[in-house]
Design brief:
The chain has 166 residues and is α+β, with helices and mostly antiparallel strands. It contains 7 helices and 6 strands, in the order E-E-H-H-H-E-H-E-E-H-H-E-H. It has a 4-stranded mixed sheet with strand order 3-5-4-6, with helices on one face. A two-stranded antiparallel ribbon has the order 1-2. A hairpin with a 2-residue loop joins strand 1 (4-5) and strand 2 (8-9).
Length: 166
């Protein structure tokens, strides 16, 4: 997460995209403290990080978007589309779909938080997404946005691809 792409770390890129619509986010989050969720067991399954973040949410938080910092092509537009889709449905889950692949970012409503906290493993609550796939709403995104950085080769490919990274 500390590798640099276009002059900024992957973790900083992810955080900046999540905060890009600062005024709208501030309005949505008014009255809620923003806290950094640090997972002390970062070598364990990714579910530990998700659990840590969920445990910091106030009781008045109705939904959460889960995204991965290594998905370097996630755009502000994608995040806005998830929020807009959630406002237009009662579905418990809004999922990004890239062609035939479903992947983060994902929007989970509060009724699924308990299932997410009970789930352990890698990914962003894959078992919860599978369990609710029929009742989920899907947001279609270009397959090119699915790229992530898991290896040095992936990182080199992201650099070589150049702009726009979203």
């Amino acid at each position: 997460m500390l590798l640099e792409l276009e002059g900024e770390s992957l973790v900083r890129r992810a955080a900046q995209r999540a905060l890009a619509e600062a005024d709208r986010l501030r309005a949505e989050l008014k009255g809620l403290p923003l806290e950094l969720a640090v997972n002390p067991d970062y070598t364990g399954p990714t579910s530990g990080s998700l659990h840590r973040g969920l445990s910091l949410l106030g009781a008045d938080v109705e939904a959460v978007i889960v995204m991965l910092g290594d998905m370097v092509r996630v755009t502000v537009e994608t995040l806005a589309m998830l929020v807009a889709a959630a406002r237009g449905t009662d579905a418990p889950l809004v999922v990004s779909r890239y062609g035939d692949v479903t992947a983060p970012p994902l929007l989970f409503r509060r009724p699924l938080f308990g299932e997410l906290l009970a789930w352990t493993g890698e990914g962003c609550g894959k078992a919860v997404v599978q369990a609710h796939r029929r009742e989920a709403m899907y947001v279609e995104r270009p397959e090119a946005l699915l790229a992530d950085v898991d290896t040095p080769e992936d990182f080199a490919a992201a650099i070589a691809a150049g702009r726009p990274l979203g």
